[in-house]
Amino acid sequence: MPEIDDYLKAAGYQQISEDERSQLMAYWSMVSALREAVDTSSLGAADPAISYTPWSPEHA
Amino acid sequence: MPDVRRPGKIMDLATALRNGSVSSTELVGRSLDLVHERNPSLNAFISVYEDRALQAAQQADARIAGGRAKGLLDGVPLAVKDNLYMQGLRTTMGSRIHGDFVPQYTATCVERLEASGAIIVGKTNLHEYALGLTTDNPYYGTCKNPWNPEKIPGGSSGGSAVAVSTGMVAGALGSDTSGSIRIPAAMCGVVGLKPTYGLVSRYGCFPEAWTLDHVGLLTESVEDTAILLDAISGWDPKDRSSLRHAPTCTHRHLTEDLSGTVIGVERDFFFSDVDESIAERTQDALHWLQDNGATIKDVRIPSLRDAVYALTIIDTSETTTVHQDSLRQRPEDYGPEVRFLLECGALPSAVDYLTAQQLRETIRADFQDMFRGIDVLLTPTVPILTPDIGQERTRVGGKDVDVIESAMRLVGPANLIGLPSLSIPCGMAHGMPTGVQIIGAPLAEQTVLNVALALESAQLDLKY
């Protein structure tokens, strides 16, 4: 996320300081490293047999 | 010698109140005296309700004298974390933004406590908006560990843990989103329970992360935990996430009998990067349980490798959504640490969040399979030694690690999949209390409490 402060500003959050920017970059690097380690292909997002839903309708 | 007092468990106080050897007015008076004496240095309380509590104590005394006691909790002084609403009484969430906020209704869990006759002495200090585990609050004071005031009490329910640990109150309510009851319980040497998700109503608890938040308890003993859980649990139609489940009846069915109990041990996740002395205390607990009738079984949960990522994305995203308006309009009114955390939560994409939710389901399925072969999982609660106030990094197993990430790592999975999880004192490490975590299957609070009761009888917390 190269322009982290622009991203936040576009989302309506106020300008962050240079110090906060570097801390956020470090945080996002850490999270990105964790994300890279996730094997998303094993989650079966495209597998109709799993029938995953992030929402439970009222009638369920 | 640490100034940690044990004036009486709820059960003992209830007996004393019934036989007339003490009045509720006396108990509450002693509680208030302790608060006045210790709170200026420990910052456990944000608000103290002296007149209200003494009036309620007099009413309790009249009921008890007239043979109309409401139950075991009638007349017993307790405290409530200051993110739980009480009608007409300032509830700050430990924040500047809500510094003058007065709710118009009372949280269901607090209503149920007061309906049982319990006396709420005051509202306890917390990490700002419950978004941290040090309870180093920039607006209401740094909460300090009574075992060593240079160290954190843990958080975010630090005030509640300190209030119980010092005997200011006989028990306290807290909230737990990523360990905020169990971490301070371990660090302050008290019992902390995070129940099954939905078992205790969250109506009136200021949200941190909706799918991770739990209301729970901190007490001096497992029996007291059972008494409080029975008082506050059960379906609440006002909470959409509340389970349609009757209030628990755990106190009546407590037993130390471990015969037939299978205790799981998962070593890849829960025993990696754990301080050596804390790992030894946990092994002490396992050995004692095995020597006293339990079977120990090694288990594996490979999907736990993704638990930290899933919890981080879900927790931060939901938290920032809660605060998005204030973060946009008045970011300067947050403490810098919490503001940074909220900015972190604005970064994940919708795809990141949904992937985290899928990981959650995978981890849930793995735990479900595991619980077919075991009764509870036992782990260290906090893998690192209690940090000093202001300490950001520590060393464990020769590695330099972040204090907050490490402290949350072992308690997070139980929040992620809503399992009941209890921390019980289990010996000392470098002069500070440590705890072990007992995790059960959904709605298996009785099993968790029974194993904890057995372990409590071992008095491992007295071993230095």
Automatic annotation (TrEMBL), chain A:
This is Uncharacterized protein. It comes from Leekyejoonella antrihumi.
UniProtKB/TrEMBL annotation, chain B:
The keyword Transferase applies. Keywords: Transferase. One of its GO terms (molecular function) is transferase activity. The keyword Transferase applies. Residues 27-449 form the Amidase domain. Belongs to the amidase family. PANTHER family: GLUTAMYL-TRNA(GLN) AMIDOTRANSFERASE SUBUNIT A, MITOCHONDRIAL (PTHR11895:SF7), TRANSAMIDASE (PTHR11895). This is Asp-tRNA(Asn)/Glu-tRNA(Gln) amidotransferase subunit GatA.
